[in-house]
Amino acid sequence: MIQQPVQRLAIVLGALLVGACAPSSDVSDGGSSGRGFPVKMLLGSALGEFCDQAATQFNQTQPKLSNGEAFHLACEAQGSGDVVNTLVTQAAQFQSGALPAEAPEFPTLVSVDGEIYHSQLIYQIEQLFPGQNYIPAITDAPLLASSPMVFMTSEDLAPGLQKTDDLFKALVTATTHRDLDAASSPQTINYVHTAPTRSNSGLQTLVSQFASVSGKAPQDLSAADVTANQAQIQKIQQKITRYGVSTSSLSEAMVQNGLFWASIGSVYESSVIAANSNQQANQSKYVAVYPKATFTSSMRGILPTAPWVSAEEKEAATQVLEYLQSTEAQKLATNLGLRPGTPGVPLGPKFTAQYGVNPQAKYDSLRPPQPQVVEAMLKVWATEAKKSSLVVVVIDSSGSMSGNKLPAVQSTLQTYLKSLGPKDRIALIDFDSQIQAPVLVDGTPEGRDRGIEFISGLQADGGTRLYDATLTARDWLQQNLRPDAINAILVLTDGADSGSSTSLSQLEQELGKSGFASDQRIALFTIGYGREGEFNADILEKIASLNGGYYKKGDPATIQRLMADLQLEF
Fold it and tell me: Residue 2 pLDDT more than 80?
């Protein structure tokens, strides 16, 4: 791993970046047959679909180098924070001799979803290789697309937000939409944004919040300004429903769960277009509210001039970048709701009020802060400002968890405990034919010891009282609710229910009383663990959807990353 002072951010936030060095991601070669060598492009999630579509078209041209050697474009989408952490970690391994320059793990091209993470990448690589300028300056990297940060809200609530001069500053004290505008609904403000350690939109949002409450432009902020204003940021963060892992999944959850779940979201303009493109019957129309000053989210093609990029790869990557800036490829971006990076390319047909956006939106484009100031912001967010949580983790230890299943879960839970923030609390409930009393764990050494002792004692045996255990967790959380925290239940099971005294219909009825339409606002997440067919995925998905959560499938190979993603959300 990278040592001080090279990556202070990774050390400070190591708990929040669990698994980021080897994240699961969406890798695509654009439908090619893999002709020639791959030009791997590691990029932020906002450009993922654009890259996939462009790769399909580009690879069909059967590209070649000047010497006739064939190559193809392969896209790998991650969160922008993961992109930076992955490349910096690989670069450190190269420096130490652990990873050769020709290793296939290295990407040839890189892109992040905004200039703050671009600046972080330059800064952190420069710490490893002073004076080498391996990462091009922002202005030297070709612009591929952009999408301004906006506030996403329902059509009914949008006028009140549009009248608010500085929404972030107003969120410090406002609790309802009527507090923002007297003509608005008394709807409670429920706010969401992505985790800034993982997602570019979350980081840009956090920087914007600090700039707003301090009254300074981001580039003028200092570490002292961050410390002086952390209490106000904490008040904004108290409005948070959940921290998303990606901008697209967060905006989709807003649409699915409605205003009681989230009435305002900090997302990309393209997210609003996507929400209205897939509008269902009885679904609210969403509107993009443009701040007076916001981040443009410039997404650029970064070609490192580094030893791990060969001359052949550089030649191929140059062709790729030229194609991504071509009119043909840029039309793909605009059709996806992204603004073109090439001058003269018209906006796509969805840049209209019908899709909730203003094609002629005017705003001042914010510039990145100094990298050291960004580090200070992220440290304050992780240790002080981030909304705390109380999560009940319900663990199936029935006989079917024997073999390699339980050890993988135990290892993952141990990592989870080590990643607990100073204000986070979890309750661990073990169930099989019996449901054990919860074991309370926090981020203190004593709390972690209790958790490790619990994890070490898990044994695979007995039946699967899934419904009873889920209801037990809900009842316990109702009695121990933390009003100023994110309260959630995470159920991990590898089998169908057996032996419960609670029926599925009774469980559904009970869970409906504690969801986001209630004052308790308890979220519920489910993980089906193991092979499909051993558990009922439809039931697990239905249970989670009742309380504003979601279902995921896991196995010994993916469970650690899946749990790390979930932990970021609360």
Answer: no
